[in-house]
Design brief:
Blueprint: H1 5-15, H2 21-62, H3 74-80
């Protein structure tokens, strides 16, 4: 299951006091992982797309639009580039 950053934040608020410490830790790890990958994608693309364009692509790739095994084709990638 892939959590978007919004879902992770919402889950952490809803689970506080209701969930185990382990569940809260996993939500925190998910939020950090999403942020880390977004930062890497932005660094890789900002020279080509600018800061805002790179962030837009990073969010699309990390916030649940695609599943982890979706094959982004060259043609699809070029539409944004």
């Amino acid at each position: 299951m892939q959590l978007t950053q919004f879902q992770a934040q919402l889950a952490s608020r809803e689970l506080r006091g209701k969930a185990s410490d382990q569940a809260l830790i996993l939500v925190g790890v998910a939020k950090k992982a999403i942020r880390e990958i977004q930062e890497v994608v932005v660094k890789l693309l900002e020279d080509k797309l600018g800061g805002e364009g790179a962030l837009e692509v990073a969010k699309k790739l990390t916030e649940g639009y695609y599943t982890h095994d979706y094959p982004v084709t060259v043609e699809e990638a070029r539409k944004r580039a």
